[in-house]
């Protein structure tokens, strides 16, 4: 089996006060775990079993709904945990900062666009910063557990930063106040990891 369920790279309470311990614990051990288990069950004994996620997502329109939803849920949360850090926040530097400035105008302009994508995603889904095939950056959003690597979306690219805006990601602490949760997210971003993702995507 190619796939492993990842441990969280910090303690469940490490992102307090921005994301509370109980939310993180349920999110990782119940929600993420269930996507992983159901994804493994959905590919078991099929020709997808020995493919990578990139290849599975590139042809996901031909796969089962279970593969799409649970494979997406597995991958999306893997990325999400990695781009958060108890020592996060601040601003990106180096090549990533230059790319954000040249693609969006400024860090604040990028943040405004990302905030809009996250706040205006109706129902459940994700906001993303992606690297497109032409190496440019773009902000996009996908419903449910879809992501921009899947062949079912209009905007394609490799996610380097993602924000889960499902209610399970914030409801215990923020209830219906999704914008407050989105605001707190900026205090947690591991920009070094995002920069590493950017380098890899180029
Ligand atoms: Mn989630």
Annotation keywords:
202 residues, mainly alpha, 3-stranded antiparallel β-sheet, 47% helix, binds manganese (III) ion
Account of the 3D structure:
By secondary structure, this protein is mainly α. It is 47% helix and 10% strand. It contains eight helices and three strands. The protein has a three-stranded antiparallel beta sheet. A hairpin with a 5-residue loop joins strand 1 and strand 2. Helix 1 runs antiparallel to helix 3 (65-82). The longest helix is centred in the first third of the chain and has 23 residues, at 21-43. The radius of gyration is 16 Å and the shape is globular. It starts with 20 loop residues before the first helix and ends with a helix. The structure holds manganese (III) ion. Manganese (III) ion is lined by residues 27, 31, 77, 164, 166, 168-169.
Give a quick summary of the entry.
This protein is mainly alpha-helical.
* Number of extended strands: 3
Q: How many separate helices?
A: 8
Largest sheet: 3 strands, antiparallel
* Backbone CA Rg: 16 Å
| Helix/strand order | HHHHHEEEHHH
Mean pLDDT: 97
Bound molecules: manganese (III) ion
Helix percentage range:
40-55%
């Amino acid at each position: 089996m190619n796939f492993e369920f990842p441990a969280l790279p910090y303690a469940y309470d490490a992102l307090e006060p921005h994301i509370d311990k109980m939310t993180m614990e349920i999110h990782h051990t119940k929600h993420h775990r269930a996507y992983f288990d159901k994804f493994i069950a959905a590919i078991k004994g099929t020709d997808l079993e020995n493919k990578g996620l990139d290849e599975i997502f590139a042809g996901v329109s031909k796969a089962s709904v279970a593969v799409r939803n649970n494979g997406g849920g597995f991958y999306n949360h893997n990325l999400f945990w990695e781009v958060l850090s108890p020592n996060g926040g601040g601003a990106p530097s180096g090549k990533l900062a230059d790319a954000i400035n040249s693609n969006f105008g400024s860090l604040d302009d990028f943040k405004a666009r990302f905030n809009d994508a996250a706040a205006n995603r109706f129902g459940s889904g994700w906001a993303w910063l992606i690297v497109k095939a032409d190496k440019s950056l773009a902000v996009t959003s996908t419903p449910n557990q879809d992501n921009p690597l899947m062949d079912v979306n209009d905007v394609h690219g490799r996610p380097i930063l993602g924000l889960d805006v499902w209610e399970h990601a914030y409801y215990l602490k923020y209830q219906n106040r999704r914008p407050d949760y989105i605001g707190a997210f900026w205090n947690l971003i591991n920009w070094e990891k995002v920069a590493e993702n950017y380098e890899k995507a180029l």
